[in-house]
Amino acid sequence: MTCVDGPGEGIVEVTVTELAMESPTLVRPGREPDVTALLNRVEQPSPELARFFYRSVGGPWYWVDRLDWTYGHWSEWTHAQGHEMWTCWVRGAPAGYFELDRQGDAVEIAYFGLLPDFIGTGLGGWLLTRALERAWEVPGTARVWVHTCTLDGPSALANYVARGFSAERTYVEYRDVSEPPPGPWRGSGLLD
């Protein structure tokens, strides 16, 4: 789904919000989740795992910018200097993840979210708190930032603000949503 010009059939207005945090003292921790969660850093870059989480977490929310990435693209992303991936697990099942991308003294929470079965368990605030704590642990971090849009989960923006982020910039794009969101399975031939 790429940006398109103006409204039309299947085209929606999408509000994009860029948020930032300038100090670790601004972090407001989320509550403990209703489930016991384990957080693991992916020490060995894994293009396959990054693609799995991107598709599984973002599929319901029109994360489509990387669907056509080749193995080489995913490998380059996961091996990039300043990239970190952390995964969240509940009772042995993947529940969510975040990816950090350091550029200079800024760390972007490049991707963050939960698999659908774990939304509403309190994991979102807890996992975002862990992402922020890790971002601020990276030596030299002066700013942590993230962006979201109105196509993301309905609690995404509220979670970012509740954890201490402030909106820096908001703008409107138009997106073609004439096709349903890709979900983790659409187009795979595994489900119809």
How many helices? The count is 4
What is the H/E string?
EEEHHEEEHEHE
**Biggest sheet descriptor:** 8 strands, mixed
Distance, first to last CA: 21 Å
Helix/strand/pairing category: alpha+beta
- E-strand count: 8
Strand order of the largest sheet: 1-8-2-7-6-5-4-3
Question: Which descriptor suits the 3D outline?
Answer: globular
Uncertain segments are 188-192
CATH topology: Aminopeptidase
How would you characterize the overall build of this protein?
It contains four helices and eight strands; from the N terminus they run βββααβββαβαβ. With 192 residues, the chain is of the alpha+beta class. It has a single domain (3-176), classed as Gcn5-related N-acetyltransferase (GNAT) (Aminopeptidase), CATH 3.40.630. The chain has an eight-stranded mixed β-sheet, sandwiched between helices. Strand 6 (106-114), helix 3 (123-137) and strand 7 form a beta-alpha-beta unit. Helix 1 packs across helix 2 (71-79). It starts with a strand and ends in a 16-residue tail after the last strand.
Short structural summary:
The chain is of the alpha+beta class and 192 residues long. The protein has helices at residues 47-58, 71-79, 123-137, 156-162, and strands at residues 3-4, 11-21, 38-41, 83-90, 93-103, 106-114, 143-149, 166-176.
